[in-house]
Design goal:
Blueprint lengths: L2 H12 L17 E5 L4 E4 L5 E5 L11 E5 L8 E4 L5 E5 L8 E11 L2 E10 L12 E5 L12 E5 L14 E4 L8 E6 L2 E6 L9 E5 L14 E5 L8 E7 L16 E6 L3 E5 L4 E6 L9 E5 L4 E4 L3 E4 L3 E6 L3 E5 L3 E6 L10 E13 L2 H7 L1 E15 L2 E14 L3 E12 L18 E3 L14 E3 L1
Parallel strand pairs: 2-8
Antiparallel strand pairs: 1-3, 3-6, 4-7, 5-6, 7-8, 9-10, 10-13, 11-14, 12-13, 14-15, 16-19, 16-29, 17-18, 17-29, 19-20, 20-25, 21-24, 22-23, 24-26, 25-26, 26-27, 27-28, 28-29, 30-31
């Protein structure tokens, strides 16, 4: 493998994560490989399914040991089913309560000897007026996710924004060391504000992010003013890799047991429909020597995935005579990703990955486009990364929440498998011979776990 892929793949398997908190609360839970939604994940759509992927097969009798409880102790009713390989549990329900914290518990020997909580998450709010006022609830990057020169700023608020009150350079400011507003693309929808700079920021310079009280919510509240200082870390020299969606959409996902590279759409208006996205994206990967705990990467805005035409059937049953034509999914801002050590099973050889993106969805034909055309912000996806031969494979799952002409809403369960080419090809080949510049573990290290991989940096 060439430089970028070798560094990324081996680091992904061997990174020594210290304190990463976005994705799980338990380091090395015996028998568990993956959980969705991720631990401490905020803003989870209420229709999101729940998955627990196990290291070893379990049995149907043990499924009663899976419990999802609100933080008030209320049990979430639903049905747990087991995949064909007996290693993936899917929990289906009629919808979680908005703005509610939930915890996933394992009992009955589902995951070997482990009993107890494995992940907690918070569902998306639906209240027009938030208890505690209109304020910033969270931001990516945060103290656990590094802010780099190629990072996009994503802010989650407690109430929905009145869109025309968030104005670049006025009520929303990201100012550089010289006091000038950073030019960029501002996206505002619902409770989400995303700012994607047009040009990468200057490493190690001080930037001021400021949201003023001139930003208003739909309820008429003024925002509690917010200000913070951001200092982007350097990402160069970067590796560049091609990432393709897998060409075998009938292959089963190792995270869900369902077919990969499918967007499973469900709403009362459209019923159940399936989209099969395809395409290629280029990812830029930060310098592995500078980011050995968490490895950031970016896919640039305007990258696209395409899907086949979808027949519009009302309620999923009644033909409407309309087809969407080709459906395009476009990155509305730079997609940021983070690769880190697997916080569950340390023996599987899989790293963890967290992605966050903003997307436009539109279709070719006019009338269906009125229904489908929309902006979906701050979509989160979690999953695993592993190396097979000369290829790095990412498996991720996320949930998108749709609004359909203001008369209906729906969810899309996104199950994707992405991989680098088998030949390890990447852009920007370096003609210089490789030189070993670093390794993990370091010489004479005594804290190396046998489940971790080796890192050789060239």
């Amino acid at each position: 493998m060439r430089k970028g892929i070798l560094v990324l793949a081996l680091l992904a398997l061997g990174c020594n994560n210290q304190g990463q908190d976005i994705y799980t609360m338990h380091d090395g839970v015996s028998g568990v490989e993956f959980v969705f939604p991720g631990n401490r994940q905020l803003d989870v759509p209420v229709g999101s399914p729940i998955y627990v992927s196990l290291v070893s097969p379990t049995n149907e009798q043990a499924l009663d040991g899976l419990e999802i409880r609100s933080h008030a102790g209320e049990l979430l009713p639903g049905t747990a089913t087991l995949s064909e390989n007996k290693r993936i549990i899917r929990f289906e329900h009629d919808g979680m309560k908005p703005g509610t914290g939930y915890t996933i518990y394992l009992n009955n020997g589902i995951a070997q000897e482990y009993t107890g909580p494995i992940a907690s998450f918070q569902t998306r709010r639906s209240d027009l007026v938030a208890e505690g006022g209109f304020k910033v609830e969270s931001m990516v990057p945060d103290p656990m996710l590094p802010f780099l020169d190629f990072s996009t700023v994503r802010i989650l608020l407690t109430e929905e924004v009145l869109g025309d009150t968030a104005i670049t350079g006025n009520s929303f400011q990201l100012r550089g060391p010289d006091g000038a507003q950073v030019p960029g693309r501002l996206l505002v929808h619902g409770r989400h504000i995303t700012f994607d700079p047009d040009v990468d920021l200057v490493p190690d310079a001080r930037y001021t992010l400021r949201l003023t009280a001139d930003i208003q919510s739909r309820s008429g509240s003024d925002l509690n003013a917010f200000e913070t200082t951001l200092v982007p870390q350097p990402s160069s020299p970067r590796g560049q890799i091609k990432v393709n969606l897998a060409s075998t959409p009938d292959e089963q996902s190792i995270l869900t047991g369902n077919n990969t590279n499918r967007l499973n759409m469900q709403s009362a208006l459209l019923g159940k429909s399936v989209l099969n996205p395809a395409g290629e994206m280029k990812a830029e990967v930060a310098d592995a020597q500078k980011h050995q705990d968490i490895l950031p990467m970016v896919v640039r805005r305007d990258s696209q995935l395409h899907s086949q035409s979808l027949e519009i059937r009302l309620g999923g049953e009644i033909p409407s005579g309309l087809e969407t034509g080709d459906i395009q999914i476009t990155m509305a801002s730079d997609m940021n990703g983070y690769i880190l050590a697997n916080p569950f099973d340390q023996e599987s050889g899989k790293a963890a990955v967290y992605l966050v993106m903003d997307v436009y969805m539109n279709c070719e034909n006019g009338l269906p486009n009125v229904l489908m055309n929309q902006q979906i912000q701050q979509v989160q996806a979690v999953g695993t990364v592993e190396v097979k031969g000369n290829s790095m494979i990412l498996n991720v799952i996320g949930t998108l929440e749709l609004g359909l002409m203001g008369i209906d809403s729906g969810t899309i369960e996104m199950v994707l498998q992405m991989g680098t080419p088998e030949d390890g090809s990447m852009t920007g080949q370096n003609p210089d011979p490789p030189e070993l510049t670093g390794s993990y573990p370091q010489d004479n290290s005594t804290s190396f776990h046998r489940g971790e991989g080796l890192v050789l940096t060239f």
